[in-house]
UniProtKB/TrEMBL annotation:
GO terms for biological process: nuclear mRNA surveillance of mRNA 3'-end processing; rRNA catabolic process. It comes from the Eukaryota. GO terms for molecular function: 3'-5'-RNA exonuclease activity; endonuclease activity; RNA binding. Residues 235-548 form the RNB domain. Residues 49-91 are annotated as: Disordered. It comes from Kipferlia bialata. This is RNB domain-containing protein. Gene3D superfamilies: 2.40.50.690, 2.40.50.700, NAD(P)-binding Rossmann-like Domain (3.40.50.720). Residues 80-91 have a biased composition (Basic and acidic residues). One of its GO terms (cellular component) is nuclear exosome (RNase complex).
Length: 571
């Protein structure tokens, strides 16, 4: 039989090979017969394996003196333990021939421990290694590859370095294959070197975008759009729309942008409908089928993001310039225009088109959030705001229409999120979408026979108004508790509260009063059981608005100090 062998991820002593939808187990180096992960092999089934059901040693008491299988069954029955059904043992196989070697190079290092001087960077082996020593074992980053025997000009030259090795041969009577060094990447632990190892081990193509033939297919700079396409109707001119993008800090490949506007009647009054535009960079205008750029993009498949870099699918002239929807520049795009009912979020109409757009700004998340929150500043007149995500335009004039557009996008997003299913399917789970956390009359049937309620609704202080915060923190859990008391009086209630919650309402901190109000109210209801979980600090997922310094000082220095001085006090 013929198949491709796949070793366990962390071991070279266990593998599987498949034939006609059936999988066979290969145990040990002898049965693997010098095959490595990914090889195409010929194999035979070992007679007498997989023919009878068995129990693993850990699942029986057969290893205990005087206790046989029957005794084990009786013992399990006496303890009231359900005996698991016996399962058939996997059929085992043995490789008889390697038909095709996987053409791979492997990253790793010589198997000699070392230490590095932090001041000088000098590498010192932890064992005495002679300068004349010319052989060593190679230990691959890939854990399921056996050690490889290397013959080197000098072992000391390779200690502490990441190297690339190819397997040249594996003699029949040898435990280890022989290999040769094909590349030296650099020092172990170096960020660039380890990134190179990750890319090579996962076979991610990260070279070739500087090929002169490929670069010759790119348009000449400076580039300008062809306005004839908008005039003859092939592209829709959307340059006057209040389009912007919102991305993480430092984002250069801005491949999507949005706009929002209320739709008005002929008298200039709102119709109850709005338009949301989703604009995606038109890469296909620059990448034609069958070109060198297209072929290279097919090999890569996607852009790969590492911890400190990205491996582009396309040349940077496209990803960071011509196909990046940056602020204040004209770009080709594919656009989808949704007509949406403002109150419900229902989609009434959809249009797709090629377009020419001009984004007004490239915002970072926090910049967009500041514009949304600061209605007093960004609401009536045009104001200048920082735009740190666009180094070419570090500031932008935020018009009332642009600010309104950001708020409108958030409004529709919240409406859509309220009715969005989690998508989780489980026989013990019934998902109910509920939006009014102070009125449970519409979901009464779901609250009958409840054993426990976990109430974890919360919001960052400062992200909503004082009334909204009190409603979410105190009124909502109390309303839920009252509904539960009526319909499932014996249910337990677990509330995500917070350190500093004061049920006596003596604290001067509004946060503590609201949390304490919720706790005291739940305790007074007479529910079956009430529990509170009080985390001391929940780190914000996004950077807080001012005063950041005061918050940092309080959280890191002042708060721990006061807790030590006044362990039983309310702060």
């Amino acid at each position: 039989m013929r198949g491709k062998i796949a070793f366990d991820r962390y071991s070279c002593y266990s593998a599987r090979v498949s034939y006609q939808d059936k999988s066979y187990l290969i145990k040990g180096l002898f049965n693997a017969n010098r095959a490595i992960d990914g090889d195409t092999v010929a194999f035979r089934v070992i007679p007498g394996t997989g023919s009878s059901p068995s129990m693993d040693e850990d699942d029986s008491l057969g290893g205990v003196e005087g206790v046989g299988k029957g005794d084990a069954d009786e013992s399990a029955a006496a303890k009231g333990v359900d005996k698991e059904p016996e399962r058939e043992r996997d059929q085992e196989a043995q490789v008889v021939s390697i038909l095709e070697r996987t053409p791979r190079h492997f990253c790793g290092s010589v198997a000699i421990k070392f230490s590095t001087d932090d001041a000088t960077g000098d590498i010192t082996p932890e064992v005495d290694v002679s300068a004349a020593r010319k052989s060593a074992h190679f230990r691959a980053v890939k854990k399921n590859l056996p050690s490889v025997r290397l013959v080197l000009s000098s072992v000391t030259e390779y200690i502490g370095k990441r190297i690339v090795v190819s397997i040249e041969s594996w003699e029949r009577d040898s435990k280890y294959p022989r290999g040769r060094v094909v590349d030296v990447l650099g020092l172990i632990g170096d960020r660039d070197v380890e990134a190179e190892v990750i890319l090579r081990e996962h076979q991610i193509r990260h070279f070739g975008l500087t090929n002169p033939l490929l670069l010759s297919e790119l348009p000449e700079m400076p580039w300008n759009p062809d306005y004839v396409e908008t005039q003859n109707g092939r592209r829709r001119d959307l340059r006057e729309e209040q389009i912007c993008s919102v991305d993480p800090p430092g984002c250069k490949d801005i491949d999507d942008a949005l706009h929002f506007k209320y739709l008005l009647d002929k008298n200039g009054r709102r119709t109850g409908l709005c338009e949301i535009g989703v604009h995606i960079a038109d890469v296909s205008h620059f990448v034609r089928a069958g070109t060198q750029i297209d072929s290279e993009a097919r090999r890569r498949g996607t852009t790969v993001y590492l911890f400190d870099r990205r491996v582009d699918m396309l040349p940077k002239l496209l990803t960071e310039e011509l196909c990046s929807l940056r602020g204040q520049v004209e770009r080709y795009a594919f656009s989808c225009l949704f007509t949406i009912e403002t109150e419900t979020g229902d989609i009434k109409d959809t249009q797709f088109c090629k377009s020419l757009i001009k984004s007004k700004a490239s915002f970072m998340y926090q910049e967009a959030q500041d514009i949304i929150d600061n209605t007093a500043r960004y609401g009536v007149t045009t104001q200048t705001a920082p735009c740190l995500n666009d180094l070419n335009h570090p500031s932008v004039d935020v018009t009332p229409a642009l600010a309104q557009g950001l708020r409108g996008l958030l409004m529709i997003a919240m409406k859509l999120r309220q009715v969005r299913s989690t998508g989780v399917v489980h026989p013990k789970l019934t998902e109910v979408i509920h939006t009014d956390f102070e009125d449970y009359s519409s979901v009464r049937d779901h609250l009958v026979g409840v054993d426990m309620c976990l109430f974890c609704l919360g919001v960052y202080w400062g992200k909503v108004s004082r009334d909204q915060y009190h409603s979410l923190t105190a009124s909502a859990p109390l309303a839920c508790g009252r509904a539960l008391k009526e319909l499932s009086p014996n249910a337990a209630f677990l509330l995500l509260s917070g350190e500093g919650a004061d049920q006596s309402q003596k604290t001067r901190v509004a946060f503590g009063r609201d949390k304490g109000e919720a706790e005291a109210g739940l305790l007074a209801m007479g529910l079956g059981r009430v529990h509170f979980f009080r985390p001391a600090l929940i780190q914000p997922a996004v950077k807080r608005k001012a005063p950041n310094r005061g918050y940092a000082f309080s959280a890191v220095v002042l708060y721990p100090l006061v807790r030590v001085l006044y362990p039983n006090g309310q702060i």
